[in-house]
Design goal:
Blueprint lengths: L2 H21 L1 H15 L8 H44 L4 H26 L10 E7 L3 H21 L4 E8 L5 E8 L4 H5 L4 E8 L8 E12 L14 E6 L15 E6 L4 E5 L5 H30 L11 E6 L5 E4 L5 E2 L2 H5 L4 H19 L1
Parallel strand pairs: 4-9
Antiparallel strand pairs: 1-3, 1-5, 2-3, 4-5, 6-7, 7-8, 9-10, 10-11
């Protein structure tokens, strides 16, 4: 093998070994066997909530072990691919090109997979492994901001689809002229909250406004909020007396009726004033259940922020705020997406808007970890 290939494989070996050490494979193996024993107990389902926790954790642990072992096997097989390519080159140089290309492609794919797993090891927060509840709201900028909010909704759903994550949209409030006022949706999958929580903040768009007859440049803003999906183990109780329930008829863009019954639901949490809506399910009961999940997630986040503020007041933590404006997307007079926290830049905004967010998200997670390490020092 060429020296640069050998050096790269050595780097991949070191990274994977570190990941294996951080995740503690012996501990994972032990935990998997313990959960398998619990899952095999016929009395487990006497307590359905506990049974669900056991089976869910078992699935996660088994998937993690399988992924690490597959990556280790692929890394051990990669030198064989390069050796085969060298042997073919000695016999038939022309025919060896395909073998070299295959080995290079596998090396690139393996590096991406190992780096992705490395990022997952950085997600060790209390709620990081949960699914993500995302709220997008248009901000300053009028109709351009509403259009921008809809562009962000498309960007995140595209990213989720590209990674095989299901998206459930709970509610969309359409603006009168174009775009949306707000949207609430869940991205399903392990570690979605930990991954996407670095996307929280104000997103700024600079472009020539398609809604301005004079073709002037417009700056508009949209706010992204990311919350962990509430699970049954969370102690978030919402008494019926604390919630006002209003029902109304669902509507689509421009006020067009999309439902002939009063199935949409608006919940108002009286003690805090938090309001959530859901209109995308088929029945009032389903919409109410989805709205309640959103309300619980918001109350959980409020509780977390209050606890964090108390700890900070005692000198136990640093500033939790990352600054409201976290990323700029410039389409005119030049092309660039820049994260204002990490300084990470992308020269092709359209790729980002089409869902190519991995580089920005990875840089955000690494930045957050560095911030946490500085605060803990």
């Amino acid at each position: 093998m060429q020296p640069d290939v050998s050096s790269d494989l050595k780097d991949l070996e070191g990274t994977l070994t570190t990941i294996e050490r951080v995740l503690d494979l012996d501990e994972l193996d032990w935990r998997a066997r313990e959960l398998e024993d619990q899952a095999a107990d016929p009395s487990l389902w006497d307590d359905p909530d506990h049974a669900q926790q056991v089976t869910s954790e078992l699935s996660r642990v088994q998937a993690k072990l399988k992924k690490i072992r597959e990556l280790r096997q692929r890394l051990e097989d990669l030198p064989v691919l390069y050796n085969m390519a060298e042997e073919e080159a000695a016999e038939d140089p022309a025919a060896s090109e395909d073998a070299v290309a295959m080995a290079e492609e596998e090396r690139s794919a393996l590096r991406a997979a190992i780096e992705s797993l490395e990022i997952t090891t950085m997600l060790s927060g209390e709620y990081d492994q949960r699914e993500a509840l995302v709220n997008i709201r248009s901000g300053a900028g009028g109709v351009d901001a509403a259009d921008w909010a809809e562009m962000l909704l498309r960007m995140y759903t595209r990213w989720a689809e590209q990674h095989g994550h299901k998206v459930d949209i709970y509610d969309i409030s359409y603006a009168e002229e174009a775009g949306i006022k707000s949207a609430t949706f869940v991205i399903h999958g392990d570690y979605m909250y930990g991954t996407l929580s670095v996307e929280q903040g104000a997103h700024r768009l600079v472009r020539i406004s398609p809604f301005d007859n004079q073709g002037r440049r417009q700056t508009s803003f949209a706010e992204v909020e990311v919350l962990p999906v509430v699970e049954q183990t969370d102690s978030i109780e919402v008494p019926d007396a604390d919630v006002r329930v209003d029902v109304y008829r669902s509507s689509g863009p421009g006020g067009q009726s999309v439902n002939t019954t009063d199935s949409a639901v608006r919940l108002t949490h009286i003690p805090t004033g938090i309001v959530v809506t859901c209109q995308n399910e088929k029945s009032q009961i389903q919409n109410k259940a989805s709205a309640m999940r959103v309300l619980q997630a918001k109350l959980l986040e409020k509780k977390r922020q209050e606890e964090k503020a108390e700890m900070d007041a005692l000198g136990a933590g640093g500033n939790a705020s990352w600054g409201n404006q976290m990323r700029s997307y410039v389409l005119h007079p030049y092309q660039m997406v820049k994260d204002l926290r990490t300084e990470y830049e992308v020269g092709d905004p359209q790729k980002v808007l089409d869902g190519d967010l991995d580089g920005l998200i990875e840089a955000g997670i690494r930045w957050r970890m560095a911030q946490q390490q500085e605060e803990g020092a």
